[in-house]
Specification:
The complex is a heterodimer of chains A (about 800) and B (about 240). With about 800 residues, chain A is α+β, with helices and mostly antiparallel strands. Chain A contains 26 helices and 25 strands. In chain A, strand 21 and strand 22 form a beta hairpin. The chains are: A alpha+beta (about 800), B alpha/beta (about 240). The structure holds adenosine-5'-diphosphate and magnesium ion. Chain A: Pfam families: FtsX, MacB_PCD.
Amino acid sequence: MLQNYFKIALRNLVRNRVYSAINIAGLAIGVASCILIFLYVKDELSYESHFTNADRIVRVAGEIKLASQEANKFSLSPAALEPALRRDFPDIEHVTQLVQERKQTVWYKDKSFNEDQLVFADSSFFHVFDYPFVVGDPNTALDEPQTIVLSEEMAARYFDDPAQAIGEVLKFSRHSYKVTGVYRDPGHSHIRARAFLSRSTHDATLDEEERTNQWFAMGRYTYVLLQSPEQIPVFQEKMDAFAQRHVIPWIKEHESDASMRFVLQPLRSIHFDTVYGADMTAPGNISYVYIFGAVAVFLLLIACINYMNLATARSAKRAKEVGLRKVVGAFRSQIIGQFIGESLLITLIAVVLALALVQTLIPAFNSLTGKNFDSNFVLQPEFLLIVLAIVVFVGVVAGSYPAFFLSNFKPADVLKSDQAPKGGSASLRRVLVVVQFTISLIMIISTIVVFTQMHFLRNRNLGFNKEQIMVIDVPGGDSTLVKQLPSLRQQLLSNPLIEKVSNANDIPAEELSKHMMLAELDGKMAERTFQIMSVDYDFLDVMGIELKEGRNYDRRMKTDETEGVIVNEAAARWMGWDNPIGKRIEYNDRDLQVIGVVKDFHVQSLHTKVEPLVLKLRPQSAGYVLVRLKPENMASTVRFVENQWQAFDPKHPMEYFFMDEHFDKQYRAEAKMLTVFGYFAGLTILIACLGLFGLASFTAEQRTKEIGIRKVLGSSTSDIVVLLSKDFAVLVLIAIVLASPIAWYGMDKWLQDFAYRTELNWWTFALAGFAALLIALVTVSFQAVKAASLDPVKAIRTQ
Amino acid sequence: MNKVANIIEAKQLEKKYVTDTVETTALAGVDLRIAKGEFVAVMGPSGCGKSTLLNILGLLDSPSGGTLTFLGQDISRASERQRAKLRKQNLGFVFQSFNLIDELTVEENIGLPLAYLGVPRAEAQRRVEEAMERMGIAHRRSHFPQQLSGGQQQRVAIARATVSNPSLILADEPTGNLDSVHGREVMALLSELNEQGTTVVMVTHSPSDAEYAHRIVNLFDGQIVTESINARKHAAELL
Ligand SMILES: Nc1ncnc2c1ncn2[C@@H]1O[C@H](COP(=O)(O)OP(=O)(O)O)[C@@H](O)[C@H]1O
Ligand SMILES: [Mg+2]
């Protein structure tokens, strides 16, 4: 019997090539997209899961609230937290802290590289996070001061073989570190480190007070390993009393009216956390996981709808077979089984094709998403299970409606010699086509809105001129460089193609630190946190930031460094200063007076609002050297800068980038995701149109005789095309009406994520609707024209 | 006539078709008994309810009124599943338009009832072979229906109807689409089957086809108007 079903199914597939191709192609594209999305989603959700203790590790985040200000949220916490937690909670297994080190130049023999993602840790870190070691003992590797554990990747830059690294000494600008281990970076963690340096080296630079009692010095990540996941809420409850015990007395001592609390973040939630920020890696976005999950389901659904529509539309052709099988005694359940089996077979063929498609698309998908999927994932049993699930899901979803519909035929009706039954419920097919086009339209509209917003972000006036600024990234901590900066500046400025040179510790699109200060409010001093940038005299000029009032820092004013401060408009507004010049700010025990206010400029991506900012003069800031170039001959000017730099500092490999690219990089991950979304939107409409093409050809076929008669009676070809296309156009119009409010709602929500956003335009919707209508009509009229140009005599004769 | 068990007993059979607004009465109180081994022809003008009657007798459709007893079992209210079961065990159908499955070969078409009966492969193959031999179509075994003439197609249909050795064969105008030569051939086959013990009920327009039957039932407007014994046939049988 199975063999019989199988033969029938295959012969039907071959006999109706066009329909089979449409179904199989649609399903294959849908399934392939689904698999790719599955890989992406699984990858996003797999963060931290490779750590044995993942479920019972928490990170302690901090919130500091100053009187009338919203709480400032930090993923970082103070050094004092670690000893206090150990003392108060002897039953927690481990507490460990990480401190990030700035980018450094590292020397070994004749090799030198600038290395970032350097992290201070101690051996307890490896008890909490089981990093796989290639060589060395994680239990003791970081016990001694001035020891370092390298990632395989970093080790490979200096040593031929990880084993050779052990015992060797790497030279940093301030210290030297002995290599005690090499680990394999497991990836998929919010912690990303090229190397771990022994934290005792760093802690030695702190005094007792800083180590144990500076509660607002949010400089470290604190992780706690609890005995069980159930302990997390219990422990969280205890944290409030903990803050009361330790932090409040300290705040009182400082006569502040601030308050502080600690929040435990389960390790696996950190990758998607956007509240606390400041991570070693950019956070993922859980909404993209949901969106892509939905897109996968939609794509499959649309492909399934094609199958259902074409199968029922063509049911007339199978009616006789069903009737006959019933005549010879088939049960209804057997017929249902046969048709579901048939759709499973088609799905299976589609899935095999989809797997081949995925194999070929993986490299492109990798470069699109920036992920690193291995193309032999196919062999994983877990994956095969998913594929099986897809086959069963699609086979049953797509197959069951036609199966129930077809198996319901009464043999007495369908075997009548004179007439064939009509092909199923046309109104249901219309509903399904509307569903398909509604989904497609929502995706098209979203894509247009998304790209409008991206364009808006790229082209918005940032309040500074990001073009033609070459930024040299100076590896930190080399004090000899600072002294030589003025002479470097002179040499650079000797080139007429270089307009200005500045040195600063902070630049846009880099994480800024927030500091607590006292600022004048209604004649009194109030505690406030401000973002802070350390800059030199030329920063505003190089960046093209405009002054709103007051003046820039001036080399001739000796007091600027110790008494002057420049703030942005947002800060002045926030403090309610009508006349900001002369207002007082107290910071680091220094009394400062506002000498200038700059117009607001964007330090961060346009997701966030411009925050109150203090531009503090520190002429010796040497994190970055900013060079404003004339637009002419930029390549040669860049080479000139490189040469000057090499002569000036032959010891450090030079690294530079351009400000515009650097700023736009903030949107890169997002832009990638959105591009992927755009592709999937295109695929949705493609699959929907495949279905429409099939349906249109079915309708044309069914109406061949009618068309013939109409032509005999004098209809022109174009009349016929209109006649056949009209019905479908109405369906697409209904879809436009349905899709618009849904897309409007969804995209408005998405745009709310941006502090600066485009407005939704009616023309976006009109454009998308018009495009969908056009595509649908082209698809349909292709069939309509074919039908309309048939020889009428022939058309009438064929039944 | 000795007391023969009835294969079918219909009492006051009624069938109404209801479509949107119109109600058509296709059968209006039909009483009919078919004895085992009989050959009955049903005749009457187009639209008088012949096919409807045959479909109900063949358990393809259920009556709207009256009772139907099949092999002593009342099946007027039987479920579709029960009727399907009775069909595959006891009935064979032959239609005017052959109704072969286009995607299956001759051999596969004939084997279909056996597949639903769950007859083992080897046994099924043997019986299909036998049926093809009997109908003289073995040389066409792997042809598809469209590659055969009408007469050949009807022989395949008869082979399919008989392959499961049914006790009753229902034929709805089996010669309607055939020329007279092929028509006679088909009638000869049905007649031969009947002689071997199979009960046959056949709808026909052709008086010459009706000649093969023992009994002729005339239907008009959903009612039996006359029933006549085919004397010649009876005489032949008694010899
Ligand atoms: N499925 C149906 N729906 C509605 N009316 C039907 C249906 N089948 C048959 N009829 C009507 O029932 C009557 C008897 O039909 P039928 O049994 O096919 O006649 P015959 O086979 O004698 O030509 C006719 O008037 C026909 O129109
Ligand atoms: Mg009839």
